[in-house]
Design brief:
It is built from six helices and four strands, in the order H-E-E-E-H-H-H-H-E-H. The protein is an alpha+beta fold. It has one domain. It starts with a helix and ends with a helix.
Length: 90
């Protein structure tokens, strides 16, 4: 892992693959949720995979609170190009 990071690579938060940092794309939590709701439905209480990875102990109430936090929705994570395309085509 240290070798990959030393080469200028980073880990995609969605798939866990090492990719060049310059090939990572910003993806806002608002877009993460929109993509998730496109697949699961608007009333889904399931927590998106990206959110679960960053907040492993998140519960339904905390997730609901985050979904209504405008500042949090604007924050972004870095995803690889394949994941970006997958998430934006949901």
């Amino acid at each position: 892992m240290q070798e990959e990071l030393a080469k200028g690579n980073a880990v995609c938060i969605n798939c866990g693959e090492f990719v060049s940092q310059r090939l990572l794309h910003d993806f806002s939590f608002g877009n993460v949720i929109a993509s998730h709701e496109c697949v699961r439905g608007r009333n889904s209480v399931a927590v998106p995979r990206i959110v679960r990875k960053l907040y492993p102990n998140i519960g339904a109430e905390r997730y609901k609170a985050l979904k209504s936090n405008v500042d949090w929705l604007k924050e972004s994570v870095k995803v690889c190009e394949d994941c970006y395309l997958e998430l934006t085509n949901s």
